[in-house]
Structures are given as C-alpha cells and as structure tokens.
Amino acid sequence: MRLLLACLWVFACSGSTYLMGQQPYEHIPLRSSGQIPAEFLTSSTYKYLHHKAGIPKKEKAHIRKAKQRFYLHSSFSTDELLLSGKVLFNDSLSNYINRVADVLLQDQPELRNSIRFYVMKSPLPNAFTTHRGTIFINLGLMARLENEAQLAYILAHEIAHYTHQHVLNRYLNDHQTQRLWKHSQPGLSGAKEMLQSNYSQDSELQADLAGLQLLSSSPYQLAEILPVYDMLQHARQPLQAEQLDWNMLYNPYLEQLNISALDRLQTNSTYRAASPGHAHTDIPSYLTTHPDPVQRKRLLSRNLPPEAEGELFVVSQNEFVRLLRKSQAELAQLFLEQAAYHDALYHLFFLREQLGPSPYFDKQLCKTLYGIAKYKLAGQALNRLLDYPEDSIDARQLETFIDDMSAEEAVLMAFTHLWTQYRQHPSDAYYRQALRDLLADFPAVFPDFPETQGLAACFGQLAAEPEFEAFFAHAQPLGAQEKPTVAPQKKKKKKKQGKQLGIHKVVVFNPRFSRIDERPRQMGVQYLATERQQALLDSYILSTGQKLGLDIVLLDSKFISPDSRVEHFNDIATLANWHQEKLLHGEIDMVCSNYEELLPLVEKYETPYFAQLGAISLRSPIEVNQRLKWLALLVAPPLWPYGIYEMVKPHEASIFYSLVYNLQYDQRIAVMSDIDQSRVSNKGLYRNIYHDLRQMKMGK
To answer: What is the largest CA-CA distance in the chain?
Structure first.
C-alpha cells in the first residue's frame, strides 16, 4: 500500500502537470510599490489636531469631548494599522480595487478624492472603513468573491459607511447610551447592550441600501449583491475542495516508516467531529453587531428592480481571475504567520485542486508540516481561525489525523518532506535551516539518535543516501551557533548585567515607546505623549550608537521621511511580520515561515544582527493591599499628610527591554530587560539605551 502511494505521489508531482497541459503555478507575493502615500508619512498628532479643529464650537460640551476622544483614538489606531506591515499600497490588487472604485464614483470626483483603498494581509473575510475615508479590504474577503460586481458592491457598502459617518456616529451613540444609563435605573439585564447593538445593526442595513443605490448608478449587475450574503453566511468556513487528495501528504521515504496516522487516514477507519476554530455561544440576535445575512439578503431582494441588468466585469475579467487566485494563494502564508497550521493544511488541499502542483505549494506544505511538528514537540495546541462544518467528513478526518499524530510521527513526516524538496532545491535556505533545526530535535524523540543504527531506524532508506550522509556530517544543528542569553532583572540601584556580544553593526527596527495610564477617566495609552517620546527614543538610539562607535541602521515605520523609497517601507514590513510570528511562537524556537525573506536583508544591510528596543511607562491606581499600614497611619495624626499622599498617588513603573536577533539563523541571541519603580525620565531612558547598546558593542 505504501509503495503504491509513493508511486502515486511521484506521478502527481511530475507527470500530472504535463498531462494536464498547464504550467506549474508561480506565485509572486504581493508587495507595496510606487510612492509612499502621504497618509503614511503624516504624524498621528497632526491628523488628530486637524480633525479636532473641525469640531463645531456650538456643540454641547460633552459631545465635543466625546468627539475629541474619538478622533484621538481613531487617528492613532488607524495609523498603527497602516504601519503594522499588514497593509499594502500600489500593489496589483490595490490598484485593481481602486480602478473598480473609479467606476463606482465616476460621477462623484470630490467623494472619490476623499477615499483611499488599501489591501489588508489578513485571512479573515472582512472589510472596514474609518472616519477619515481609509477603507481596508482583507485578502480573506477577496479570495471568496466570484466576480467584479460583487467586489463593487462591497466597496459601495463601505463607501456608504464613510458618507454616513457611521463609525463616528456609533461611537457617539455608545457614549450617549453610557451617559444616560449612568443616571438612570437599569431595567432588563442587557438592555443597554441591546440599544447599542440595535444602532449598529441599523447602520449596517442603512449601508446595505445606500450601497445598492450607489451600485445602481454604475454599470454593474445589481443581482450579484445577493450571492454576497450567501458568502457572508459561510464566511468563517474554509474554502473547500471537492475532495481532499490524501496523496499530497505522502512522499517516497514514508514507505519504510511507521506512520500509523497515515494508515488510518487512508483507510478512513476512524474520525471524530471537527472542533470549531473558536468558541461558540448562544448569543441573542439583538446582541450581535451585524444583522443576520439572510435577513439582509431578504431586505435587499425586495429593493432590487424587477429586471436589473448590468455587467459582471467592467475593469477586467482576466485581471479579476488572476488576482483572485493570487489572493487565495496568499492565504496559505497568512495562516502560517498566525500558526494556524490546521487551516493552512486544509487550504493547501483546496489550492492544489484549483491551481495544480507548484513549487510554492510544496514549500507551504513543508512549512505547515514543520510547524505541526514543532508544536507537537512543545506539547502546545494548534491555533485555529476558521470553523469547519460538522457534515464535512474530510475535515473530520484531517482533524483526527493531526490530533492523533505523535510527536515522532510529525517530526518524521516534516523531515522527509523537507528532505524531498531540499534534494530538488539544494540552494534553498529555508529547507536547509528547517532540516538543521529538526535534526537538533531528534535526540529528544529518538533515544538511539544519532547512532548509526538510530539513523537507519529513524530515516529508513533515506539514511543510506550519500547526499544525506554528507548533509548530516556537516549540518550543525540550529541553536549551536549562538545561544540566547537573558540578562537578569536587577534592582534599581544595582548595575545591570548583560551579554557582551561584540557586534559592530546592528539594524534597530521599530523601536517602541508606550506611555500607559490605567487610572480612572484616563485613555489608557497616552497617545500624544507616546508619539513625542517615540521621537526622543529614536534620537537617543542614533546618538548613543555614534558615541559608542556602533554602526546603527534605524528602521522605524513611525518616522518615514518623504524621501524614503518603498523598498525601505517593505523592509520594515517584512521585519514586522517576521517579529510578530516570532513572538507568537513564544518559547518554541523554530524557523519562521518567511525566513527566506530575511536573508536578503542580512545581505542588504551587511549584518546579521537586528534588534528591537523599547520602553513602557505605566501608571495605575494604587492597590490598597497593606491595610495594617493605613490603619497605623490613621492612629498617628502627624503622619496624616504622608498617608493621604500615599493613598492618592499613582503606582508608576518603567519597563525597558532589548531583543537581539541573528537573522542569518532566525535566532534570538540576547534579551536584556530592566524594571524601574518610577516614571520614565529622559535620563533613565538614555541610561538604559546606553547600557543595552554598549552590551551589543563590547566583545567578550
């Protein structure tokens, strides 16, 4: 049986493309290009002050204050999203979406000039707008559309949210509800939430009808809005292949290996119900923020003209199909970046059916199996983003297969798939580094490894291959190059200790300063103070590096000059996506899914060392947990002034940290941190930056 499956696997990877008469799918990831939009270059403080100045002075004081809070939070949070590394501009998909918007608003040039459309690199099917006309379309939504007319309706819906100022009005409605509820006697439990949710649902229905009206003035087919709600009803379910071809999980080396989970999968012997990707609760409909898609579809069907005519495609059908496939292919990488390996694996079955075999899909499969193996070794559960229908037998089988795999089986599957691709692509850095990493894990799961007898028991015929013997003899397991060192936290007045790394050049990416105030009536993040201190942090890093003779390249998404090239922005986005995944894995030391994108940065900046520095200033309400202390103060009148001060003053703390990485091996090599029981001062900020950069500079 295994020999037959191995032959089928080789045939599927080689002969099927020829017989089908099609070229393997070549995927080029979406990247920003062209000139960086002005919206990315303007400070959040300036945007907030601009919107604040537009608030009419004749409005009531509490409304003016609510609008000020809204503009403050919205300006900074929107910019945080724009600079997160997940937003694309001037790429092929964003340009296509903007051309569709041009068709929609061809008779409203002023409105068109006030709206910007961007693509969001998220696998979740969603689109949303902001108060200032910035509209985001997720790749997960684009991947589920059927034609250009459906895309046009989604854009029209989001444009309606902007023109009716639903984001601002919902905030003001919630503020008003909270304000009135504070001075009244609540009735039914959940009534306040019901009022707020009803307003949100009314806004969605209003945007539905306004979007229909906007679409009716365009050349697009109106009837195509109804399938959009069919899609939304099942939006959290995966894109499904007709039938999952389990042969994708096999390779020739698995013939001699004992992978019992594969045997059970192929024979359909047992399976359990697939578990949902996230928790479900029986939430009443009046507490949901969006109306039921069936209800929305019914409402719009009553408002459609009896004989609605129009076009499915106006800009380009070929371009739509090409970008649809590209969006679907991108989802595999997005699932990997969120460690959603079950979703990634299921999605790869769909892609292989739709687009045929491809080196890109082969690599994504290796990355998925490698991720499953690493999480199995760590004993951690896999993340899930999507829901799987209970009647999907294939989904239930795949779920059972992944759950039942032991760590040993997962490692062997991942290693043999990686080795198969490495033999075909020996210069590929990801395959080489992932193989070295798994080799370092083998002693933990195979006691006889790396004895000669243990190699044969682990790898079967693979162990006898001359290429493998040469690779094994020269492969230094990942982690042996440089071992991470954590600088222990010291008390305030003691000199901090650290690791002297002997680095001569380092790239500092996205240094971060945050000022947070958790006292009542505060905003949480102190946005204006944070942005001012962020600029000071950047200047301290550069000046301190110059003083120490440490060559520093600073890459900060929050301070991009108008003269910066888009390649500079893309470098920051690559590092941001990589670092988010690195932090998501936590203590699991593994090669990240975009590792091959890191090596060009090592070559470009002529150093493998990259670091992120940061500081957090925290203020919180005092916690009265030393009751005896306060009782003692009460019986000692001379100490009352001191006691009152102690009762009302906020707790303050400063956290400083530096994370240093060697990108050549995708490895963290040092963590330096310090906690100071006081508010961040300029002197303290400079002192900690100086200490950490000095530790990077000095040799052992």
So the answer is: 94
Report CA Rg, the chain: 29
Q: Between the CA of residue 321 and those of 53, 89, 219, 672, what are the distances in Å?
A: 45, 20, 19, 49
Residues with Cβ < 8 Å from 361, sequence gap 6 or more?
25, 332, 348, 351, 352, 355
Q: For residue 579, give the amino acid letter.
A: H
Q: Which residues contact 136 (CB under 8 A, 6 or more apart)?
A: 81, 87, 117, 118, 119, 120, 127, 128, 129
User: Phi and psi of 488, rounded to 5°?
Assistant: -65, 145
What is the model's pTM?
Answer: 0.87
Which residue is it, tokens 């008003």? 176
| Short-list 510, 491, 460, CA closest to 613 | 510
DSSP 386: S
How much of the chain is helix, strand and coil, in % rounded to 5?
55, 10, 35
User: Mean pLDDT lowest for which of 305-319, 407-421, 494-508?
Assistant: 494-508
Q: What is the pLDDT of residues 631-667, one digit of tens each?
A: 444 445 554 454 544 555 567 788 899 999 999 999 9
Half-sphere exposure of residue 346, counting CA atoms within 13 Å on the CB side? 28
Q: Where are the beta strands (DSSP E) in 429-573?
A: 485-487, 505-509, 512-517, 524-525, 551-555
CA distances from 230 to 182, 203, 247 (A): 40, 20, 32
Q: What span, in angstroms and rounded, lies between the C-alpha atoms of 101 and 532?
A: 37
Long-range pairs, 109-118, Cβ under 8 A, ≥24: 111/159, 111/163, 115/159, 115/162, 116/37, 116/39, 117/155, 118/82, 118/87, 118/88, 118/89, 118/94
If phi > 0 it is left, if psi is from -120 to 50 it is alpha, else beta; for residue 33 that is beta
Sign of the torsion formed by the C-alpha atoms of 240, 246, 247 and 253: positive
Q: pLDDT digits over 183-235, tens only?
A: 554 444 444 444 444 557 788 889 999 999 999 999 999 999 999 999 988 88
Q: Which residues pair with 512 in a beta bridge?
A: 614
Q: Which of 571, 578, 529 is nearest to 554 (CA)?
A: 571
180/191 Cα distance (integer angstroms): 12
